[in-house]
Design a protein that fits this description.
CATH topology: Growth Hormone, Chain: A
Shape: globular
Low-confidence stretches: none
Largest sheet: none
Mean pLDDT: 85
Distance between the termini: 24 Å
CATH superfamily: MFS general substrate transporter like domains
Length: 440
Amino acid sequence: MKLDFNRVLPIFALTFVDVLGLTIVLPLLHLYAAAYGASPLEIGLVAATFPLAQLVGVPVMGALSDRFGRKPLLLISQVTTCLSFVLLGLADSLLLIILSRVIDGLFGANLATAQAALSDVTSEENRAQGLGLTGAAFGLGFIFGPLIAILTLELSDNLSLPAFTAAAYSFVSILLTLFLFKETLPPGKRQHTKLLDSASPLIIFQMLRRPAINAALVLMFAQQVIFFGFESLLGLFTLTRLGLLGQGNAVIFLLVGVVLVTVQGRYIGPWSRKYGEHRLIMMALALLAVGLILVAITPEQPHPFYVERITANRLIEQASPSSTEAIIGQIAVDLPDEANRGVLGFIWMLIAIVPVSIGAGLIRPSLNSLMTRQVSKQEYGRVLGVSSALVSAANACAPLLAGLLFQHYGSTLPFLAGGLVMGALLLVSLQWIKPAAQTA
């Protein structure tokens, strides 16, 4: 059964526009915080505020969408996201910046609700493909959002403009939902639970107690801790191994984005129908394990145009703590020796990044699709909300864990440990994660 693109494309479009707004602001949050004299720890707090607020808010919003329908909750989510960006643009203190992220985190369940809507309009055979499209929209947003952020900041040299630009994109997503999105969960198919049950912050624990899905939820959290730790430290790693600054890292992240979008937009559908979600999950874990280990052993060889003195000066000029550095304190890094310049290190990294990107493109849509097959249609929003919340929780703690490993044990260990743990998760999941047909 093929996807009904008339129903799917509006969801894809609003997801892309939503993510675009978010990713315009995301790379600049530490600058907003630093502009008001924030300490490194306070900058870390700004970075962690959004995912921690999502841990509370997203499961509740997802469950409410099961009770009241997808469209009302999407609109509430998008309106509050838009207002949070406006508040960020108007902010004149660190407190208002944090407040804007709390509001967006608590009520901004755009992606989880869009995924629930896609689950409503797909069958078990093509659900992984449908959920993969939201991942592709997410990947496209992460390609174009930071570019727009840099452009608006260069044009204005004012931190308000990127925030207001994000608010404008968020407003466009509201219009898309109002006029193009058709409700996917009619009243007769909604869950008729008590409002307090739907809005309970204990939904995560309720879902984790259910044998049919608790293993998949734990796996979702565990793999995201490893993968987001990889994402958080990749720029720092390539600096210490390859001497790369912004432009070189942009090439690597662009490759990651292109592979993610290709896998999720084109291949995950045929593969899921041919092999099933269970095999795709195992394949993804294997690819992530191999890829992370390959990244960890990248040769320390700076690129051919690397000059250590120039790189050090540019680092001083551009000094501003990243989210990871902000949380664990400034990380003193050793730059590579320019006497060892060559192309092997960069080529090795480009090859190693491919299996990581393919695995990342497969794992979340496949896990989410598998989980929706274990619950009733009236619980899609609930289970996908919990899944998104656990991803947010992983995103909050991953930079801290990976950064501490990097700081105390060197650049290799976070990626090597991540690869080995992914391999261990694969071995455990072979027994722990069961195909939908074999689960009661």
